[in-house]
Amino acid sequence: MLAQLVRWSRIKSPWVLHLNTGACNACDIEVLASLMPRFDLERFGVQLKGTPRHADVIICTGPVTRQTKDRIIRVYEQVPDPKFVVAVGACAMSGCVYRGMYNVIGGIDQVIPVNAYIPGCPVRPDAFIDGVVKLLGSL
Amino acid sequence: MEEFTVPIGPQHPALKEPISLRMTFDGEVVKHVDVRLGYNHRGMEKMAEERSYIQNLYLTERICGICSHSHTTCFAQGVEKLMEIEPPKRGLYIRTLVAEIERVHSHLLWLGVAGHEAGFDTFFMYTWRDREIVMDILESISGNRVHYAINTFGGVRRDISEAQKQTILDSLGLLKQRTEYYTNIGTTEPTFVARIKGVGKLSKELALSLCAVGPTVRASGIKSDVRKDDPYAVYNEIPFEVCTADTGDVFGRVVVRVNELFECYKMIEFMLKNLPVGDIVVKAPRRVKENEVVSRYEAPRGENLHYIKSNGTDKPERLKVRAPTLANYPATVEMLKGCFIADIPLIFAAIDPCICCAERMVELVNVKNGEASVVSFGDLKKLASEQYKKCGNKPEPVSIAKQLEKIRRKS
Amino acid sequence: MNEEKIITTIKENLKDKVLELTNPSPRRIFLKVDKNNLCEAISMIKEKLGFTYLITITGLDKTDSFELLYHFADDTNVINIRVSISRENPIVSTVTGVIPGAILYEREIQDMFGIKVENIPDPRPLITPDDWPEGAYPLRKDWKYERPGETIPGGK
Hints:
The structure holds three protein chains of three kinds.
Chain A: H1 2-12, E1 15-20, H2 26-34, E2 47-49, E3 57-61, E4 64-65, H3 69-78, E5 84-88, H4 89-93, E6 104-106, E7 116-118, H5 125-137
Parallel strand pairs in A: 1-2, 1-3, 3-5, 5-7
Antiparallel strand pairs in A: 4-6
Chain B: E1 3-8, E2 20-26, E3 29-36, H1 44-48, H2 53-61, H3 68-83, H4 89-117, H5 121-142, E4 151-152, E5 155-156, H6 162-188, H7 190-196, H8 204-209, H9 214-218, H10 226-229, H11 250-273, E6 291-299, E7 302-310, E8 316-322, H12 324-336, H13 344-348, H14 355-358, E9 362-365, E10 372-375, H15 377-391, H16 400-410
Antiparallel strand pairs in B: 1-2, 1-9, 2-3, 4-5, 6-7, 7-8, 9-10
Chain C: H1 3-14, E1 20-25, E2 28-33, H2 38-49, E3 53-61, E4 65-73, E5 78-86, E6 91-93, H3 103-113, E7 116-118
Parallel strand pairs in C: 2-5, 6-7
Antiparallel strand pairs in C: 1-2, 3-4, 4-5
Helix pairs in contact in C: 1-2
């Protein structure tokens, strides 16, 4: 009974933290746009949060740069369990055009475990919503 | 009185770019700001030397997601000069058209964020709703919402049909009507104006000496716009005004951007009505003769500069990119000095360094001996409650350093 | 102000300090001076010609030497001041005394090329990460980056 309640509340109100790890802003504005009136991700209970301590899901955009690597691990540790990581965009998946540059380590999965990948350069809001819904469906 | 140094950033959800700011406060007034970049540094200039020109075109597009067209245009027109080819008129018109539509999207985005920072979220939602109209136009022209990839060497990749022209003109009418409403709110709504007037002052002399660019410098009353000063593409054929304001504060920047929106609508209409017939692209060679070029472009945030040096192969010898935001950092630091904590988000506008949740560590700098000590949040809380108990209602200054030492001795 | 007038003014004021002065395309002027005369040239074009706005500083590695380009703009024209710096002794004096806004670009040059800027008010690294090795300057031509191998989670 309690487990069911926990599962239900987890699915109905995933609070997200948006983490830019060195992206070019394109994915970031598309993530924001999907929370805006046209696409309105908030109808699924998704809410953008300001601090890792309030969040359930980390939305990572961009390749991991050398300077942000430690910060990502720190933010990941601050998020309470159970936590999920969504890699948004081609850069967060593999590094995209930045792959092989001296200051880029690669995709998010080189640093922290990732639960869902959403491809696209940049990710369209529709794709983003689809990815979030699929992640919630897998719970 | 001790000064507080608070690190803000580099990770924050509303922070567009990961940037770290170290601010020193005296009470509630900002004394000193230190900017640390490099969180978003990817090493593009080095990579550009190892890729061919056409690959670099797509690399430069990914410098920035909001003004992606500005960098490709700047790069493409530089390389076209090196290749000694002249794109056809229709191609240039479409290129400029996309540039102006992009400016509309960027300014609407900025307006919304400015409203958000001032605590006016309705405005934020409204402008972002209408931004979607612009995104639809861009998608219909280029096929993608953000990275348009419409530029190629020698012209553009896609043509505009008559039907598309009509749709753009129709949605432009709607946008105009809505923007008039926002202008009315943004420049006359008393609560909003009271929040943004007089905040983040930048005098004309300071703006000049710190080499600020774009709407920031135009809001300080300097008529500087690359489109007028150093016309590229077809800007010498299109009638438009350079918008300025003389207040030099956040209000001035709102006014400049709103007025620029109307200029953009006028230009888009003009370009659509006077679109020449003909080809959109000419063939470009793969190799480029040894030469160098300085290419300038007026992006929505200010001036872009690309310096390209070629060496006779299909790869550039050196590509230097100067984006407008970097030029505005010294000016922003000056604007922040002497302002209140509550004004920081507004002045940074797009970058929102929320003090309460940005970091859980505060550094205390003892001004007398300059030693820094890191205090955890728990310690600070303890300190605060002890201090409250001690002075009751009277805001009596108690030396924080002394208190800290006490705590440390205990633990 | 047109290009000819700028060129004659530069020639009148700097005389034999001008090493090279070209005007390859409209509104673009390239001026070459010795690095010891850099500050003088900059204050000259600032005061006499009104070029107050420094766009950026570009560094170039020409394998045997370095080159710095200071891009200045007024209302219409761009003057690019070129300075050559030897590879063995890469030192240049700061221009922040004349142009305070140059500080970020000079710090960038220090990070990327290892060219020491003398008397710079704030010499800390700006762009390179905190754990960046000493003596590695990414934009030098002889600096190569070896990408370490990646492990793909869940892959083979």
